[in-house]
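Design request, tokens follow.
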């Protein structure tokens, strides 16, 4: 498999995640020291004004660190899960209109990664995804580990892809498909009735191989598409 990364974008976000983390830790230390040095009620209240935002900022920093600050990052996990696919496949990270785009015999795929744990199901009556268990309230709320509106995110990704194709004036007619990619080891997917495709990380490669048994793209079509997209970098 060929891989094309926007390394500048990755490095920049990694640096931002580190800055947020160090800022949060600095605020935590400041709030703790303040509470030790100032013992009356009014001054202790000021410590809470420092510690509570610091704690929330730590949760945000953890979320960003999961995406950018530590290895393997989501893009690396996607590449690892697809390792073994031949060079008919090309993976584009952060440089083709959407975070992760895969082109190959099985078609064009937008890979939408989620690091969410617990039982994830789809409520057909309410037409929304539901998460049970998993992280605590603060992690779900502030570290973005609560299940989002997956249907909306899929629509937004498709719109971003089409905007990219239009802005770059690319000659790509085939419609991409979105696959929601869950890479937490603690996730339990129960989404058979969901309108979107949801797959755990270790099953995506086999799914694509099965899909490629009736290829949507020929070698010539794959080359014509990939010639229009950013070149291989890794």
């Amino acid at each position: 498999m060929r891989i094309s990364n926007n390394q500048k974008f990755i490095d920049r976000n990694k640096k931002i995640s580190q800055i947020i983390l160090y800022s949060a830790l600095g605020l935590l230390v400041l709030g703790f020291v303040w509470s030790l040095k100032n013992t009356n009620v009014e001054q202790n209240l000021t410590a809470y004004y420092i510690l509570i935002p610091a704690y929330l900022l730590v949760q945000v920093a953890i979320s960003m660190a999961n995406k950018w600050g530590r290895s393997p990052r989501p893009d690396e996990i996607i590449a690892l899960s697809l390792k073994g696919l031949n060079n008919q496949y090309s993976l584009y990270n952060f440089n083709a209109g959407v975070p992760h785009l895969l082109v190959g015999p099985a078609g064009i795929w937008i890979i939408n990664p989620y690091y969410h744990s617990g039982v994830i199901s789809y409520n057909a009556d309410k037409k929304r995804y539901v998460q049970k268990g998993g992280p605590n309230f603060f992690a779900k709320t502030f570290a973005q580990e609560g299940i989002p509106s997956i249907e909306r995110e899929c629509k937004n990704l498709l719109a971003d892809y089409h905007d990219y194709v239009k802005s770059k004036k690319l000659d790509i007619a085939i419609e991409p498909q979105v696959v929601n990619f869950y890479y937490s080891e603690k996730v339990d997917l129960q989404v058979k009735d969901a309108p979107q495709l949801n797959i755990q990380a270790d099953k995506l490669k086999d799914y694509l191989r099965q899909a490629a048994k009736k290829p949507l793209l020929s070698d010539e079509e794959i080359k014509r598409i990939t010639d229009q997209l950013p070149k291989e970098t890794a």
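Comment from the thread starter after seeing the answer: thanks! Residues 2-69 form one domain.
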